[in-house]
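Margin note: ligand = adenosine monophosphate.
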Amino acid sequence: MAQTEPDTEHTIDSVGWQFDNSYARLPESFYIRIKPVPVRAPRVEILNHALAESLGLNFRTLSETEAATLFSGNILPDAAQPVAQAYAGHQFGSFTMLGDGRAILLGEHITPAGDRFDIQLKGSGRTPFSRRGDGRAALAPMLREYIISEAMHALGIPTTRSLAVVTTGEPVVRETLLPGAILTRVAASHIRVGTFEYAARSTDAEGIKILADYAIHHHYPDLTEADNPYLGLLHNVIERQASLVTQWLLVGFIHGVMNTDNMAISGETIDYGPCAFMDAYDPNTVFSSIDHQGRYGYNNQSRAAQWNLARFAETLLPLLHPAQEKALALAEEAIHAFPGIFQNYWLSGMRKKLGLFTEEAEDIQLIETLLTLMHKHQADYTNTFRAMGSKVLPEKNFFLDDAFTAWHAQWQARLSRQSESMESSLNLMRMNNPAILPRNHRVEAALTAASERGDYAPMHRLLAAVADPYADAPEYLDYRTPPEPTERVYQTFCGT
Ligand code: AMP
Ligand code: MG
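Resulting structure:
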């Protein structure tokens, strides 16, 4: 071992890493310097070579053992400065001090294009923030994050990415013994609303300013010159979250745990736990087994986002204006604008789903009538919109209903009032109504095959299918079939 290690280290450093560690240069209160806890027998289960390439990295030169050593954190890249990040969060409304209890940020990789990405190992062992947790992750949930995050990326929705999953060769104790695993997560950053909540409560008065300046510098550099950069930060984060949550709703995505520690300041979707895509349209859909009140159900997601953004705004109060009352007024004004901003994004996205290029005041009614009908019929959300973008509607119950026929006539009349051709409308619809999503029953089947039988074929095929969600790929037609009643997944679990 003593002889092979220097070589392995050398090879690991030859893959193209360009590390910088700007987060680890923040004041010490923002993190704890700590290394991943080594694992016994790491093995690479999946490696995202396409993502690696887009980052200017090449792992094809590594042997399987070397790759496993790297993605388990058993050996770190030379320039990495591993830290566990400190943060707090409101979880289902209650405030808690948190922090990376099972993740380590290795550092930030700078791509050849100059973009900066966090490289984080999730499931990497205990840290001082672990509380009662074991610091580890089970294989299935890490593969779940891999599948859904890559599908979200293919859909064009801002998200963290997944570079690799390794198994650790060590079991984790959950309700049963499960294979342990580590996910390598790639993110614009891991700064959360909860990071600001942490800074506001536990660093000195300078702390929140340092964090805000850091977030502006990395995610909203245009604000550096603004009159009030901190108010600009608040407005920009509100915009990005309104846009993000809209994009979730437009594809039927339910995040499931929109706690403030799971909301990224960058505007990326982060922390895939009990998330899922809705099959039959029902605005009240809740998947998460721990979300008893439906707080984070499909239709509550914009409200949850606004609530989280209000917590964010509170942390910025001392920076918004020296006079407390004025600061509060600015924050309130920004937060109260959220529903309007969200509604505009949503209307604009829904218009595209219906092939509309222009705006008419009655569009909202047109959309809502359709959704109400879909709800009544439990129409499949994805397939219904996709079908409406084809020339001939399928002979399905929903499309044969008199109420739909009446709606359809209204919609056709609406389409004919714009100058764009029917062909352009159908194109717009095909680009905005995905054909293939990682439907929950297929995700669960792929995870079971992989984690219980070591059979990765279903997962690879699913990943290939969701990689091109807007295509009519005949070979992947089966992924478009909604679950049979017996296949339907009603609940998803955090399964940490
Ligand atoms: P999550 O539900 O993954 O967003 O995690 C919420 C908080 O719990 C974070 O602070 C995590 O680091 C921590 N956590 C989750 N699972 C574990 C675990 N198995 N061991 C230690 N900490 C954990
Ligand atoms: Mg989290």
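The longest helix spans residues 229-250.
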